[in-house]
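so i finally got all the pieces together for this one. its two components total, 648 residues if u count the protein bits. some of the lines might not be protein, just check the labels. i wanna see the whole assembly predicted at once instead of chain by chain like last time, that was a mess tbh
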Amino acid sequence: MYYPPVPTVDPLALGPVGILSLFGVLGLVVELLRPKGKNGTIMLISLVGLAASAIALISDFGAGTVRSFGQMELHDHLGSISELILLVVATITVLISEPYLKEKKIAFGEFYPLLLWSTAGAMIMSTSSNLLMIFLGLEVLSISLYVLCGISRSEEKSEESAAKYFLLGAFSSGFLLYGIALIFGATGHFDLLSVTSVWANGSASSHNLLLGGFGLIVVGLCFKTGMIPFHQWTPDVYQGAPTNVTAFMSAAAKVAAFAAFWRLISAFAPSLQYWLAPLSAIAVLTILGGNLLALVQTDVKRILAYSSISHAGYILVDLLAHAKDPSINYVSMEFYLLSYALMTVGAFAVLSLLAARGKEVTKLSDLNGLWKRNPIAAVALVAFMMSLVGLPPFAGFFGKVLIFSDAVKAGLVPLAAVLAVGSVISAAYYLAIAKAAFVDEPNESPVQRPATLGPQTAFVLCMIGVIAISVFISPIQSFFQR
Amino acid sequence: MIVGKTLREEQGMMPKVFGQYVGILAMLLIAVIIGAVMVTGSWLFGPKKVSSYKNAAYECGVEPVGNARERFPIKFYLVGILFILFDIEVIFLWSWISIFKHATPAFQKFTFFEFITYMSTWIISYLYVIRVGAIDWDETVSLDSSKLTHMSPIQESELEPIGVTN
């Protein structure tokens, strides 16, 4: 008789992910049975699923750290906050999607289940310290995203985006897996928990294995978060993918990857002396490179892609500050990710309005005259741009201040200075987008597309959020800290 | 393998060892019979229409003779990938089923629930594959017409003659 262990199951910890996956399956079943060309039901199911998942999440919020499923699922506060941000991102994406997909004639019902599964993958990734689970979550997130990027089948740019993302994503997964294998070799465990003790007691050879594994995993995660020099895919994929997918991807992939990155950095903090310099170099390169390359772009989606690269650099500064001074917790990072998610998704939501006659219209000059066509969208876009630059009273300002003060507190003054310089450079291209929408007159009369309720709600919500989270910054901080 | 047995005892074991393999031998025999019946049956009763397509060597969806740098039908990969997915599915069950029988009831209950979850995802995805006609060769009849509207129709000039010409 075998006595294999029966893992303990914590239904509340699994709840949000399970509900979301289940509603994804339900959406697919409706797609099997539905009358042709109507996505209303599937969209409704997705929204209900997201709401149910959020309720399950909030009902168990701040319950403390619980490990279940044989230590593979980690239910803690960092994970719960990340999950909440992911649900917000997915909800906004569902709201903006339908009119855009219809306009581009790619209103496939499969879009919504894939979006939910992708979110579920991101949630798995952010709620585990087991490297295999992190990898599994990453793959569920990424594979759904590869399909979503290429969902506009007849468009060459979309196919290029999917193929590039798939090839480079698979390549970076290889790095990640190799790193996991080395760490397993050194510790005999897949869990990041075991790293610290092995580092303290281990021999020189196990130290080498650990550092090698750490380096490879960092390469894999840097690919996913789009850090220079692993960023080459970002602009092409962001530009080619349908705008609503870009909106989702730019926020969700970062939220999940940075949660995993945070756990990795925490586990490896004792070996800081070996890797602080190279990771600082990556942060500097990412901030300066992302901002400088954005200056020369003429396509709004590409500008926002480079902007997302530079924002990844800002967040990396916070991770390094945490590694140097463990008293700095994840509140600043999660606050920054929340504000970044709202402003980026909001900006892409406005851009998705520009698609017309089945074509992507995202040149900087295409924004001209937006002020007259859709004043609310133009005002919202300006709010997002100001927030992305980091001007008060918007959320981006407080996010940057938090990271800046963390960096100074941990003694990383040069990185803090680079962050400030990067923000100043970024003002040029963000304000160029705002100027294009507000000041410049269109050359020819652009296609008038009536804004529908969904996107209008989405970016108004994002705009309110960007202002509200800066007004209520201290309650949010204490909520994150609980 | 067994130390300290007399020759006679070992000889006595023979039928027992043989007995362990009766099942496999029977299965081999049945496989041979089924194969033989099918081949002979279709040879005897099947219609015999000879065409150049049928006589051509089978080469996984492409022309066996001709330029090697030609475009592959993407459907070939679609069917191939689906086949591999549904084929691999069983391998994950193998490790589970091999300990299931001898495990504790608690483990059996827990993993049976997991098995049901796992298999239902496969069944739903199988229904989906059938519904969208992913394994039908001709996409224009299988794909939902709403999903074809955005695609420009293939021009006559884009079509290339296929098949072996004699």
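Chain A touches chain B through 22 residues (CB under 8 Å).
Residues 11-481 of chain A form one domain.
anyway lmk what u think
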